[in-house]
Task: structure prediction
Amino acid sequence: MSDRTRTRLGWAAMLAAALVCVLGAWSYAQARGDGTLAYAKGRDAALADGKRHLARLTSMDGRSTQGVDSGLTAWLGSSTGPLHDRLESSRKKDAAELTASGATARGKVTDAALTALDDRAGTAALIATVDVEITPRTGKAGTERKRFEVTLARTGQGWKVKALEALPVGSGS
Result:
């Protein structure tokens, strides 16, 4: 092979490499600005926040006044809107009842899915299955399976629970 042919092949290889780099950069720029990517990130954030807050709202340490106070504070931190207002207004009554019961509950979200997401309005709906391990002050501990329909609202601190509705386990919704 002559030097001239090698030089031409070298230039052709560099041109092909430059073209691949340009196409790669263009493809990356298109994907980065893609609305579906932003929507997917919003969906993932709403789902993760919703699951975390639902687990908090189904958990409570009733063994001590301090545990109840900490649990109620966590409930308020996980909620917004009407649910937050209701929890705040009933806090003293709830604290007395929970301390008196002495029971401990630990919620674990076993499955969850968003059923709706309006990223522009900052609202989402979630359905979830939660296993709640309940340990009474006296007696045998047990686990209850619960289903919830959750309304989420986006706040300055991420997605929080705006409404919470328990669903019968055998329901079709």
Notes: The two ends are 74 Å apart (CA to CA). Residues 116 and 125 are 5 Å apart (CA to CA). The chain has five helices and five strands. The mean pLDDT is 91.
